[in-house]
């Protein structure tokens, strides 16, 4: 360590000689154009191709939303069942340790599918449909394989959300649960240039294939800063336990400098419209009364405390808070929450892949160099 510090002291570091604008995390940088989703963080509005999220949740299905994102046209009806898994995908899922993170299983299944099918350039709507339909079957199969159970073939009559529940639990899903999951899928389908979508676009910009782009997107979403919050919301509410304990628990957590899960957002400075839509869905679900009344009471208290502690920084409920309620109400194990979020985002990822390919330009930004200035290797002095 001392040697390293001495070496650094004698080195000439090129420090910020490049004066071009730089925004860490690309925050506030316009890095592309899209006609898919519009996230209006100030007003708390989200639209897909101009249609507000609350209308899409109320009157649409995930299959219609996916077609809208892929083709630009709102179909009167659409049917998107889950897809059968090719044998090599099942073999790869069986080869994974049962303790593997479900996101890794999903990424592996996508990668094997890509190696078998070799989707070509340019990407197509058919490829987008195929990958979106593959993912729920793959996740359900892994969830069963890790418990020593056999995977279940898709029911072609069911839509994606209901089909996923059928292949996961092995029973015809309750229509209300399938509808609630479908609504969750709609709210998760698309959200602008988030980290995973941007990753998919970067990969596509090299003219790589759609399966590689989705693998990269799943990898980006696996990070806890992107896809990990809903299971943390469930933990948080379990720890709080009852409304009487909430005030002290929240104060203690904030005093320790901890983040309250399901609150705050990089873009929204208002109530996340997806949280509002999912709260309505959760309120309509059977068997949710106790859990939901705790969640609502904790939310009210948390919003009050966040406003007191951060008067200059609007901090509101984000989508993950009520996503947790819906996913928990359906009976999904919390360790499947992040991968279930990934299932929903397939429509958006693949729509961005198609959009990127239509007006493609290699995404290759510059980096500001802050390393050593040009120098000679030790013992190889310049002879100039
Ligand atoms: N609880 C308590 N304080 C918070 C929270 C929170 N959930 N979110 C932000 N703050 C505070 C920060 O401590 C910071 O305070 P300071 O200025 O005194 O240090 C201030 O608000 C600003 O926070 P930033 O980190 O600058 O906000 P950023 O935009 O980077 O963070 C994020 C957004 C990561 C979502 C953050 O709000 C957070 O960690 N939330 C909890 C995790 C969560 O719910 N994630 C899901 C997000 S939705 C999604 O990904 C689909």
Please outline the helices and strands:
Blueprint: H1 2-10, E1 37-40, E2 45-48, E3 51-52, H2 53-59, H3 62-71, H4 87-95, H5 102-117, H6 125-145, H7 160-169, H8 175-188, H9 195-205, H10 210-221, H11 224-227, H12 229-240, H13 243-255, H14 273-283, H15 289-309, H16 319-330, H17 337-358
Helix pairs in contact: 2-8, 2-14, 3-17, 4-5, 4-6, 5-6, 5-10, 6-7, 6-17, 7-8, 8-14, 8-16, 8-17, 9-10, 9-17, 10-17, 12-16, 13-15, 14-16
The protein binds acetyl coenzyme *A (ACO).
Principal-axis shape: globular
Biggest sheet, in brief?
Answer: 3 strands, antiparallel
Q: How many DSSP H or I helices?
A: 17
Helix content range: 55-70%
How many E-type strands? 3
Offer a few descriptive terms:
globular; mainly alpha; binds acetyl coenzyme *A; single chain; 384 residues; three-stranded antiparallel β-sheet
Summarize, please.
The chain has 384 residues and is mainly alpha-helical.
Describe the fold and architecture.
By secondary structure, this protein is mainly alpha-helical. Helices cover 56% and strands 3% of the residues. It has 17 helices and 3 strands. Strands 1-2-3 form a 3-stranded antiparallel beta sheet. A hairpin with a 2-residue loop joins strand 2 and strand 3. It is globular. The mean pLDDT is 93. The chain binds acetyl coenzyme *A. Residues 225-226, 229, 259-266, 306, 310, 313, 315, 318-320 line the site of acetyl coenzyme *A.
